[in-house]
Amino acid sequence: MHPVHVLRLCSVFEPLPSGEAAVDGRSARYDPIGGMQNHTATLTRCLDAQAHVQTVVTSRLAGGRGVTRLGRSAVVHRTGLPVPRLRQLWALDALRVVLRRPARPVDVVHAHQGEDLATLPLARLAARWHRCPLVVTVHCSVGHTLTGGGLRTRLLRALGGAVERSALRRADAVVVLTDRTAAALVADGVPAERVSTVPSGFDPRLFAGRPPDAFPGVGRPRIGYVGRLAPQKRADRLVEAFGRMREPASLVVVGDGPDRQRVHALAAGLPRVHLTGFVEHTAVPAVLASLDVLALPSAYEEMGSVLTEAMASGLPVVASDVGGIPEVVHHGVTGLLVPPGDADALAAALDRLAADPELRARLAAGALVRAEEYAWPRLAARVASVYARVREGDVLEAVA
């Protein structure tokens, strides 16, 4: 497989490391730090290790605007304004990078679509400008996954759904995280032969070994939440469910976000609740290794990349039976599934695991086996094969 030059467009990418204008905990309350960031960064690293050349164009989030290197040959351009309400303007600033003629021609434009309406139009323009195929990874389908009744959500589904539908029907290849989303997009008019399922995964290098206990002094069993404190993640519902548990346990909430105040208010006065705030992704393996159960009570979720990291850590999972989660968490094999939004059902599932160490051990063993399918080097090779396929089609079309 020949190396290619990929122009990667993504509204979020991992923040700069500590000491390099990194995103701090306060910024994490307003910026979308989570699975999509880790996905785009780890994919870039793995493809860099496979000798592909990559130009990444992303938003600056709350960090600095500028250019940094990643790995041997990947270059990351952080663009836009450090204003949360004007984050979409990153794409306008990105034009100065996207419309350059690089020394090595761009072979593939790869857009990563979440809840950001600006990425897809920018990607279509980039593909036309560089006269190359367009690949789109759908991290959250605003037309098929997004739920909720708020004004922002309704606007995203209406306007964003139309933008998404138009772009995906015209893309040379569409990568989705779950078969559920693949079926929905095909039913919506995306040709089936252009759709590939490649889930998010975990970086085996980060999960090798057994790190020291991240929470010394916190009682067991430990139930953990690791992720962004955002409305769709429903960490508040987890705190409510923990307050209804009958079995003794501790709750560790790791993360920050716009729901921070609500989560902290619900936790106030509850015994054995520990709120750590934001941690960098490099600290997540030690966090997960120090837990006994991971909970993900999301209202909607394309797949939930923290689930694969939890399985790599040998953790049983309690998660909402929603979106693509059931494709990752097999009920009774790697974890337990509960109806979304049902605090009593969530509390009952947590009680069941807290009271039964043998069940936890059996689900943990199943999780470790299942995790082998989600190692990032293997997944990155599948993405590279998508690049090869669209390039081959582009060459055949040019010859014809």
Automatic annotation (TrEMBL):
Coiled-coil ranges (or none): none
Biological processes per GO annotation: carbohydrate derivative biosynthetic process
Domain (Glycosyltransferase subfamily 4-like N-terminal): residue spans on this chain: 34-201
Residue ranges of every copy of the Glycosyl transferase family domain listed in the record: 220-365
The entry's keywords: Glycosyltransferase, Transferase
Pfam families named among the record's database cross-references: Glyco_trans_4_4 (PF13579), Glycos_transf_1 (PF00534)
Entry GO MF terms: glycosyltransferase activity
PANTHER family noted in UniProt: SULFOQUINOVOSYL TRANSFERASE SQD2
Descriptive protein name: Glycosyltransferase involved in cell wall bisynthesis
Organism, as annotated: Geodermatophilus obscurus
